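Practice problem: predict the structure.
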Amino acid sequence: MTAPRVLLITGEYPPMQGGISGYTELLRSEMELQGIQTVVLSSHASSADETVETWSWGAISTVREIVSRHRIDIVHVQYQAGAFAMHPVVNLLSRLIRVAPVVTTFHDLRPPYLFPKAGRVRFFTMRRMARWSKAVIVTNPDDRHTLSQAKIPSQLIPLGPSLPSPDARFEPEPCIGYFGFPSRQKGFDLLIQAIGRFPARERPPLCIVGGHATAAGHHGFMSLKDAETLAAECGVELTWTGYLDAQAASNALSRCAVIAFPFPDGATQRSSALIAALQLGRTVVTAAPAQADSLTGLTRLPQLVQIPRGDPAQLKQAL
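Answer:
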């Protein structure tokens, strides 16, 4: 039997930074090892095989042309609501391209904030997208539950670690680690406030492994200016590694005494940063999940420390 040809559609792909970028690169690598031929379509800033200048209605004809030219058997969309410049064209691909079946992996069904009541509209379009897809994959129990309530079947395939193991044994340094863009959704502001509660002489620096967002946006990102302003107000020293490749990021996190992600809404398996940090073996402090099964299979890990949500004082004690 001939292996299928798969078109992977993603809003970000290396060298673009982000969890979906790394996920898609790893997925493609594994598919190629299984003998599956792949083509990647992404934004113009990426190194993908095929790119679009902007995500617009013209993407429909672009996808059809790519499917025809590469003789694609399956279109696989890596979907996150804040990606694809938030244009609805991707939500309608499974309905409109009609030249190949569409499989959709939903990485996060929570709609980004646009304006009051916009979330209902975004979720409606995502639900339609799921119904029109030939198959639906989710990466976490929360999203599977959401689709189940809408009577939409899905296959749960949890995220795996996006970082390799450290390539050396590192002694922990007296600093707190954070992986990824500074984001309020990951509790970056709460983390700075908690570190600021330490006596000045005992206050550890915060090492941010990764780059910074150019401006605040729908992902809850904090701009560099906002992050540094808050840190200065709390008397917290920030060190930035800048963007690192996967091995260097693994090594940098492994040098931190503790890693923290105090998600204000509770920890979730949606977070590739959390999954990556846990596999390094360092203590990881995070907020207790809102739903008991949100961290299925992870709560038994000895390196995972859970604290109440939204409590800088408890977070400081755990650190």
